[in-house]
Amino acid sequence: MVEPASLGSSCEGQWRQQIISRMDFSGTIGVLLAICFVCLLYLSSRKKKNWSNLPPGPIPLPILGNMLQVEVKELIKSLRKLSETYGPIYTFYLGSRPCVVLSGYQVLKEALIEKAEEFSGRGDFPAVQMWSNGNGIVYGTGERWRQLRRFAISTLKNFGMGKRSMEERVKEEAQFLVSEFRKTEGKPFDPTFFLSCAGSNIICTLVFGERFEYTDEKFLTLLNLINSNWKLMSSTWGQLLFTFPKIMRHVPGPHRQIYKNYLQLAAFVGERLKMNKETLDPNNPRDFIDCFLIKVQQEKNNPNTHFNDETMSKTTVNLFFAGTETVSSTLRYGLLILLRHPEIEEKLHEEIDRVVGPHRSPCMEDRSRMPYMDAVLHEIQRYADIVPMGVPHTVTRDIKFRGYTLPKDINIIPLLCTAQADPTQFKNPGCFDPSHFLDENGRFKKNDAFMAFSAVSLPCREASLPGREPGHHGALHLPHHHPPALHPPVTGGAC
């Protein structure tokens, strides 16, 4: 029988031992936390040291940064407004991440042309990067991105980008589009759907080698996925994902649909890749996918190649996704602008009748003899401002820029829209005015501040071809057709 005294002594000893063990454990945890805290302070001080000579900007709040100082749904407008206070280069915090915002033609020119190599890094765009993982031609980086971009540009050019084969495809699509318009029999209708189909089909003929009927269920599903993602990325949820990517990836909400939509687009592209592989003739490539498959075969013995199935899939999705929206938007804005300005449409018809005549459609070879048409096409893309903010960049090393220190990998937000609305480059930036691209003799003139889809450096201009050139081709045919349902013209507004 155990004596109560000895039992109490034993329990007390065990209790003391547990207390000591817990104190040791707590002490260890405390030391580890202290070490982590010191490390965080050290890293923070190093960052602050690197950030000590950033451009001025609005004072950020902890964690939230400057997000409470802007309208999330009107982010571009808010960023432009801030440039009026802080100048053409300022610092803006997306959460805890500092970004340097560039605005105005001169600053954008200095950064993206004169220091193109230093500003050539790709910045954060979580809505795309969570699917692409830095692969593809839009948000890729480094040598892989350079090789993919170079290949895409040369391949698309060989498949008629700016050449006659593209013209024939666009002319064919224009006939289908006008046919759909005429089916409305003069009744009021919303042309958005038809223009989206036409714009996407122009890209489809390049990437997939064929067009789709406007009633094709799979085609309509793809268009819905693309439209859904653009809407989600520009929504409040999309902006929150852009600002707090690490947190929002684990938060339920409609923004998670962006990734699911990308997977569905990738699945469709995967089916096309499989079909093309099974029917590939290396001597007779039919589309962009065939050309990529041939390139993969040519590089199969190169251990350092960047051409593989994953890269092919993501590059194809990039072209289809971005190209569809930019071409469709160009067509929509072109139609709306011509309706709003019947006097400009009339001048276009006079030039078409004089140069082309009544028996054929205008073609790209006619552009050199149609300066007013060329000016209108450029002004549509300038005024519509389809891509107001360029792809986020980063600087590739620590650099001095306009008296400030920009540390390596800091995000750069180029507001391309501010170049296109720069009053030092365009006399009436807020108005639709084709004379922005005409000289005193009525001849077409280029303007370096024209940044409709991309930065103004030559490689970036070439990289915008999938959006810019098909858009020019498609818009070229808008004034040639007079669907009765599109009249009377829209009126109202200053410009």
UniProtKB/TrEMBL annotation:
Keywords: Endoplasmic reticulum, Heme, Iron, Membrane, Metal-binding, Microsome, Monooxygenase, Oxidoreductase, Transmembrane, Transmembrane helix. InterPro entries: Cyt_P450, Cyt_P450_E_grp-I, Cyt_P450_sf, Cytochrome_P450_fam2. Its cofactor is heme. Residues 466-495 are annotated as: Disordered. It holds the Pfam family p450. One of its GO terms (molecular function) is oxidoreductase activity, acting on paired donors, with incorporation or reduction of molecular oxygen, reduced flavin or flavoprotein as one donor, and incorporation of one atom of oxygen. One of its GO terms (biological process) is xenobiotic metabolic process. Residues 474-484 have a biased composition (Basic residues). CDD domains: CYP2. The chain crosses the membrane at residues 25-43. It is a peripheral membrane protein. It comes from the Eukaryota. GO terms for cellular component: endoplasmic reticulum membrane. It is found in: Endoplasmic reticulum membrane; Microsome membrane. SUPFAM superfamilies: Cytochrome P450 (SSF48264). Belongs to the cytochrome P450 family. PANTHER family: CYTOCHROME P450, CYTOCHROME P450 508A4-RELATED. This is Cytochrome P450 2F3-like. It comes from Pelusios castaneus (West African mud turtle).
